[in-house]
Amino acid sequence: MANKSHLKFLSEKQLSEIKDFKYNYGFDSNKDDEDAAPKNYFRLATSLRADITRFTADVEEKNNLKDTTLDIPYDIDYVKIAFQDQFVINKYFQDYYNDFGLEATAFYDFAKKGLFAVVDRDKFQTFITNVNNFILHALDNNQNVKYSNYVKYISGFKLLKANDILKVRLENIGEIVYLSLIDLPLDEAVKQQLVQSLIVYIESSGIVYKHDVENDRIELQNPTPEQIQKIIQNFDIIESVTSSAFTTIRPGEFNTVQRQFGFDIQNAGDDLPIVGIIDTGIAQQTALAPLIIDDTTFTLAGSPLIDQAGRNRLGHGTAVAGLVALGRLNHRNNFENEVTADARLLSIKISDNGSGYISEIDLLNMLYDVKAKYPEIRLFTLTTCYSSFMYKNETFSDYTYSLDKFAYETNSLIFICTGNNENCINENTSYDLSYFHGDHTNLSTPADSMNNVTIGAAADNLKDGAFLGIASGREFPTLYTRKGHIDLSVIYNPKKTNKNYFKPDVIESGGDMGYYNANTLDWMDEPALTLLSARPEIGIMQEVGTSFAAPLTANLAAKIIKNYPALSNESVKALIINGASLNLIPFATDVSKLRNRVIGNGLVDDLKSLYSDENSATLILEDVIGNGNIRIYPINFPKYLIEDDLGKKRGILKVTATMCFKFLPIKNNQLSYNPIHMAFSIFKNHSADDIMKPDEELKSKLKTTLSWSENGRYVSKPLPYSNTQKIFLNVNVDDLNNEGNTFKLAVHAKLSEQVVGGLPEDYPTEFPFSIVLSIEETIKNNSGKLYDEIQLINQLEVIQELDIDAGLEADELDV
Question: Where is each Peptidase S8/S53 domain found (predicted)?
Answer without folding.
Answer: 274-589
